[in-house]
Structures are given as structure tokens and as C-alpha cells.
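Below is a concrete protein record.
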Amino acid sequence: MRLEAGLVETYRGGVAAWECDVFGHLNIAFYADRFIDAALDLLDRSAPGRRWRTLALDTRYEREFRAGDGIAIRSGILEMQRDRVRVGHEAVESGSGTRTTIAEHVLQPISGSAADLPSGPDFAGQRLAPFRWPEREGRIAAGRDRVKAGETEEGRLQPSSCVHRFSNGCLHVIDAVGMTHEYRRRANHGFATFETRLEIGDSAAGVGEGLVVTSGIDTIGRSSLAMVHRLTAARDGRPMARFYQAGVHFDLAARRSSPWPDELRRNAEALRIAEP
């Protein structure tokens, strides 16, 4: 995706220490929170009072945000259809203006039509590369809990509540390949995400309902690993959301990627999602 001049600022804030994960950078769920705030700010300028829900959020993380960094987000409408709008976001470190993150965000109006929004600047550009979801589920148990009060909106799980579960699921995936807590401390390595794709399902979610995350490995590279998480209702398997997450074996001292050890790569290959 390429965002051109003419974006408007839709968010300005900072990274709190408690929002950073064990690897020292802003947790991916808090990016989702900020992009949702940014999209609603943008859309409220054209359709005040209209309510929206997120259908999908695809994000590419180009640089880290760390505790104490200032964040500014600029946004613009990429495409409008009758039943949805596609918004582009660009996050920058507010002090230097360095771009850190881009995102494509698809939202659906809860009432009314998206087609009556006024046209914005022309941001047509290349989208993130197409992605084919694996047909089969992974075999890694990566989460089990219940819907908490405050996690739902319009009867469905909030996007950030889904991403928090997927972020925790990532820890179970890297544990499964041998990147355990002991390994991470000894090798001083972690996992840094560089791309995510979130899709929210239509299933309703009630407070107290049980949820399950199941994960699997899609691809393994020299230093990269891509995983797929699925969030379903524990009682009847209703799909709530799915999430693609690609990242790298990350040197926490040098703050850059490094090759996977052979043993961990072999473990990851054994856990790849099998094609039908």
C-alpha cells in the first residue's frame, strides 16, 4: 500500500511502558486500538455520529515503537463501497517524523451506507500482497479463557480483545518450536512481528462465554516465521476471528533479526499446517 500526500492527522499520543511486551516494543494489540481510534476520527468528520465496526485490519510494522515514543497517525479513505469503507493509516514517530507502520483497515457501517461519504484524496496504490488462508487449522493449543465485561461492542468481540489473545498465542507457538523462556534468556532473543492480518467474524460473543485459540505455523524461513491463529467459541466452535502473524527471530541486544538455530527450524517444520 502506498499512501500519498493529503493525509489528515487522526491520532496523536505516546507509548506507555505497560503497553510494551516482554520483547521491549509496543504490543501489537495496542496498534489495533490506535488505528481504530484513527479510523473513527477520520470517518466522524464526514459522517458525524455514525457507528462502525472493524471487519479487517492488515498491518505492516516497519520499525519498532518503544516506551516513551510519541505516535502520530495520518489517515485517508482508500476505497468506498455501499457496505464498507477501506481506510489507509500511516503511523510515524512524532519527534522525527519517521514512518514506522502502515495499515489497511476495512470498516462496516452499523447503520446507513458507506457510499454516501464524500470522496477524499486519491490514495489508490498497491495493497499489501494477497494472502491465502490455510484451509486446515494448526495443532498448537494457544489460548483458553472467557469473554470479560467490557470486551464486546455491538454484541461482538472488540478487535483489540482478539489481538491480545493472538499476541499471547504467539508465545505458545514459539514455546512449541523450542524458543522457551529459558532459551530466550540464555540467547537474549525474542520475536518481532513485521506483518499481521486480522479478520473479524460475524459471530456474537456474550460476556462469560468460553473462547479457544488454536494456532499453527504457515511458513518458516532463514530468520522468519509466519503463524496463523483462529479464535473460536469453546462450546460450539463458532468462528470469532482469525489472524496471520509473521515475524522474525530477534536479537534483543542488536534489535535486528538473526537466523533460526537448526533445531528450532526443524521443530517449526514439524508443526507446519498440512495442506489438504
